[in-house]
Design brief:
This protein is α+β, with helices and mostly antiparallel strands. It contains 9 helices and 14 strands. The protein has one domain: B-lactam Antibiotic, Isopenicillin N Synthase, Chain (Jelly Rolls, Sandwich), CATH 2.60.120.330.
């Protein structure tokens, strides 16, 4: 009599090393696990990614030194959603992207993006605003630029894995990433003493899906932390492993796969009443395409829905505008 099978977790942890260095069977097992997970929750945890934890710790220390400065100092760097600089309290309400009307999100952010301008002046005007680095924390720039280099490398490895998981060419996704408009947010979730008592229905980040291709998240565990939505389980606390990065796919990738894969719906809970001083910080890398990429659903039997093709960045602009609090 065979042993009963242990059910696979909805958000599994995957070691990337067998994918990077293993034989064909090991790589195929990883690809199958990825495919299953992205069909259910749209989330994965990955270890074996090679990103130095000391680098992540250094960014958090430098960013926190900025976030705790007086508001009038930070306001010098104030930006709009999709811009470069500081997003203060009340700047975003992510729930609006899915039609959920929530109060503004309980967070502050530093936001940066691609370092290289584009050849097209029109693309530059919309998608390339030079990064604004706070003079008060000069060490932050070098740390973030090193981190973004590591993220771009990891994103390409992940996208190659995703292509294989769908049975497509190895460069099916990466060939559209030669000059992406990636974004990088450092999200600070302070306690209630900083931002006040949450309003009814207010979150650190309201329920939403990400907009682009692949998001790579380095987060901290907390009572008011990340929750993931699945059809089977509803809202559940996302699993946490301090050695792992959290990966989810966004709306464009879901469209690209013809809804085979789910755009991972998630939220970040408010600081809990029984731990009002809880403070967390997340490093969020948003992988995107090269501007002008035509995103067209993979046909059946891989894809399940044939969406109308979209221009990747027309789609992204519409989504970014939808979460901006006027």
């Amino acid at each position: 009599m065979s042993e009963p099978r242990t059910p696979q977790p909805r958000v599994p942890t995957i070691d990337l090393r067998p994918w990077l260095t293993g034989d064909a069977d090991a790589r195929a097992r990883v690809a199958r696990t990825v495919d299953r997970a992205l069909q259910t929750a749209g989330f994965l945890l990955v270890t074996g990614h090679g990103v130095d934890p000391a680098l992540r710790d250094g960014i958090r220390r430098a960013a926190r030194a900025f976030f705790v400065l007086p508001a009038e100092v930070k306001r010098v760097y104030e930006a709009k959603v999709g811009g470069r600089g500081w997003l203060g309290p009340g700047a975003e309400a992510n729930g609006y992207a899915e039609g959920t009307e929530t109060p503004p999100d309980l967070k502050e952010s530093l936001t940066f993006a691609t370092r290289e301008p584009f050849a097209d002046p029109a693309v530059d005007a919309e998608w390339y605003a030079p990064n604004v680095w706070p003079a008060e924390t000069p060490e932050l720039r070098a740390l973030c630029e090193e981190y973004l280099t590591r993220m771009a490398e990891l994103e390409n490895r992940l996208l190659t894995l995703l292509g294989d998981a769908l049975g497509l060419e190895a460069d099916f996704f990466t060939r559209h990433m030669d000059h992406p408009t990636y974004g990088f947010n450092i999200n600070w979730y302070p306690g209630r003493a900083v931002l006040g008592e949450p309003e009814p229905g207010q979150f650190r980040i309201g329920p939403h899906t990400d907009f682009g291709t692949v998001t790579i998240l380095d987060r901290q565990a907390g009572r008011g932390g990340l929750q993931v939505w699945t059809e089977d389980g509803g809202w559940e606390d996302a699993p946490y492993d301090p050695a792992a990065l959290t990966i989810n796919i966004g709306d464009l990738m879901a469209r690209w796969t013809g809804d085979r894969w789910r755009s991972g719906r998630h939220r970040v809970l408010p600081p809990p009443a029984d731990a009002p001083a809880e403070e967390l910080m997340s490093l969020v890398y948003f992988g995107e395409c090269t501007p002008g990429t035509r995103v067209e659903s993979v046909p059946a039997p891989v894809g399940r829905v044939a969406y109308e093709p979209v221009d990747s960045h027309a789609y992204l602009r519409e989504k970014l505008d939808s979460i901006t609090v006027d």
